[in-house]
Amino acid sequence: MSYDPYPPHDSHRPDDVHSSPDPYTPYDPETANYTPYDHAPPPPTVTYPWQPPPPPPERRRLPRRPALGNHSDLRILRGAYRRQRRVATSAALGYFCLFLGLSAFAPALMTSTATDGVPTGLLLALAQLPVTWLAIALYERTARRRVDPLADRFRRQAELDARREAAR
Length: 168
Description:
By secondary structure, the chain is mostly helical. The protein is built from four helices and two strands. It has helices spanning about 70-105, 105-110, 120-125, 130-165, and strands at about 115, 120. It has a two-stranded antiparallel sheet with strand order 1-2. α1 (about 70-105) packs antiparallel against α4 (about 130-165). The radius of gyration is 37 Å and the shape is flat. The termini are far apart.
């Protein structure tokens, strides 16, 4: 004979205070002689009691010297990088938004034929790829000319500071 851990709702045991013959009978705390807080919850246990407790976290010591670099240097580098991203993004997105605006507000221009029956809209759409390549080239050029020299200068200065500190 098997035991069913989940008996049907309509089963009523007369010796059980919590079960009632009618499942829609509201719970009445006055007549019930059990409260959910009659016993304390069990103490928390370790999931794997055979493992040793974790070691206490190490206390980190503050460095004796200030951090390498100067905050103004990092601000200059972030500003150059931010300008670089803005220029390249505005070049690509600007052309795309121009194309969308012409498509929405100048359909006569977009449907007119440019050469040999090819619509102007198709030519402008195909020009998006070279414009994207131009934006990538512009991004790389400004990185090489403006951002990379700043980063190299700050890197050399940090290495020099580290060597000076190691010599002390």
